[in-house]
């Protein structure tokens, strides 16, 4: 839990209200869920397939849109210690004062904007699934939806690609098809409402297990393959041949360590009340050993199924290892003795994954529930550094990304964590 808990001890004494607040707050969880460059960066009239300066487009959900990119680490004492981008962090309209699509949370720190003469176009949306949803909040999927609420991401890509030289399209999708938000909600609620001597695990709950049956995994793999096929169709419709652009399928990173790697005890409630990582050890182990490989496996399988010659893979599975939420070796600003995110060494000593939010989002809080368990500012910039290496000066390549400098994070001259892109390995 973070700022706006002016008396943390009082909240720890009242655990039932905390659990109740968790239940209600998580109902809002949207899930997978340098300056942003929206479609307002006007291309010249002659730009198009194969002509003009290169562009990169990113499509998908919150793990590529920039969700939680406002926060560089966490502090329970003062949110300003970690507030790297301020209240306009997700405002991607031309004026920088609002969102093009509400709650997509396309942060200005999102990985699309690699620079170096390459312009980024971020079409991803926090909470998106493979198919467009027009419920309470419009969530464009990777399809050709065209209605009063907006357009699907494939259609947006097709229209943008006609007047831009889009050389690489990066897709991260599928997490919400696996009901990521509901799984997280169940795991945290089970942690808060069961004692350490009678643990109620989430990984064996029927509602969670149903998402990982062989039949459901096969269905989601087919959905993702369909979404990737829509990307290829969009580019073809815009006038591209397969040798003029590359499709990069990006997997999801592990956001929490195994149970033995947490810095907070499994007993008591400090994992959530202090760290914002309310998970039992066995559930964390299951997340890394079963859930994440299953989700990423479906993406990689879909990348193969789509049958395109121009596909590359960016494996992010271990990109945050050593810097994950509540992991040993990193901490809150007050725990590591640093005043704020601009302090020397902050990137190496603070977390790259945002806390799971419950009651700290109530009232005038600057936090949003949908930011929970997503790559924060450092994580976003780390993924950008990985993507730049995949771009490879216009000759895209596959690879697995990890923290450079033997796990000790250092910043590049552009202010990003220096990452290593090694041989492709989903292990």
Describe the structure.
With 427 residues, the protein is an alpha/beta fold. It has one domain: SGNH hydrolase (Rossmann fold, 3-Layer(aba) Sandwich), CATH 3.40.50. The chain has twelve helices and nine strands. The chain has helices at 8-13, 15-25, 62-65, 153-161, 180-192, 206-209, 214-237, 270-273, 281-305, 333-336, 346-349, 377-391; strands spanning 54-60, 119-122, 146-147, 150-151, 165-172, 246-250, 311-315, 399-403, 419-422. Strands 2-1-5-6-7-8-9 form a seven-stranded mixed sheet, with helices on both faces. Strand 1, helix 3 (62-65) and strand 2 (119-122) form a beta-alpha-beta unit. Helix 2 (15-25) runs antiparallel to helix 5, helix 4 (153-161) packs parallel to helix 7 (214-237) and helix 7 crosses helix 9 (281-305). The longest helix has 25 residues, at 281-305. The protein starts with 7 loop residues before the first helix and ends in a 5-residue tail after the last strand. Mean pLDDT is 91; it is low at 1-40.
């Amino acid at each position: 839990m973070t700022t706006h808990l002016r008396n943390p001890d009082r909240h720890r004494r009242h655990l039932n209200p905390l659990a109740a607040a968790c239940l209600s707050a998580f109902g809002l969880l949207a899930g997978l869920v340098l300056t942003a460059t929206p479609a307002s960066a006007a291309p010249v009239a002659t730009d198009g397939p194969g002509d003009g300066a290169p562009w990169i487009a990113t499509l998908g959900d919150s793990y590529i849109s920039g969700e939680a990119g406002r926060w560089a680490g966490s502090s329970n004492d003062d949110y300003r210690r970690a507030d790297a981008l301020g209240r306009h962090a997700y405002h991607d309209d031309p004026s920088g004062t609002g969102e093009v699509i509400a709650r997509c949370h396309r942060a200005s720190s999102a990985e699309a904007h690699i620079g170096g003469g390459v312009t980024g176009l971020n079409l991803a949306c926090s909470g998106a699934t493979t198919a467009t949803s027009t419920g309470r909040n419009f969530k464009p999927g990777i399809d050709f939806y065209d209605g009063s609420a907006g357009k699907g991401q494939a259609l947006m890509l097709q229209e943008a690609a006609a007047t831009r030289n889009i050389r690489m399209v990066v897709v991260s999708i599928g997490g919400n098809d696996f009901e990521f938000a509901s799984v997280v909600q169940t795991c945290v609620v089970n942690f808060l409402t069961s004692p350490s001597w009678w643990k109620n695990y989430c990984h064996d709950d029927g509602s969670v297990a149903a998402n990982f049956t062989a039949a459901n995994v096969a269905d989601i793999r087919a959905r993702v393959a369909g979404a990737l096929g829509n990307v290829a169709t969009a580019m073809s419709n815009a006038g591209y041949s397969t040798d003029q652009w590359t499709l990069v399928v990006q997997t999801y990173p592990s956001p929490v360590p195994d149970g033995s790697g947490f810095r907070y005890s499994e007993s008591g409630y400090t994992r959530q009340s202090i760290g914002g990582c309310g998970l039992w050890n066995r559930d964390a182990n299951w997340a890394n050993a079963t859930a994440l490989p299953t989700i990423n496996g479906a993406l990689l399988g879909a990348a193969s199924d789509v049958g395109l010659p121009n596909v590359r893979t960016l494996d992010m599975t271990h990109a945050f290892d050593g810097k994950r939420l509540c992991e040993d070796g990193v901490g809150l600003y007050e725990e590591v003795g640093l005043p704020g995110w601009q302090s020397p060494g902050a990137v190496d000593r603070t977390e790259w994954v945002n806390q799971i939010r419950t009651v700290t989002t109530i009232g005038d809080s600057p936090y949003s529930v949908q930011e929970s368990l997503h790559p924060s500012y450092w994580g976003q910039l780390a993924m950008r550094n990985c993507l730049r290496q995949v771009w490879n000066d216009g000759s895209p390549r596959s690879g697995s990304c990890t923290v450079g400098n033997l796990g000790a994070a250092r910043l590049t001259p552009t202010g990003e964590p220096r990452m290593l892109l090694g041989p492709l390995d989903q292990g």
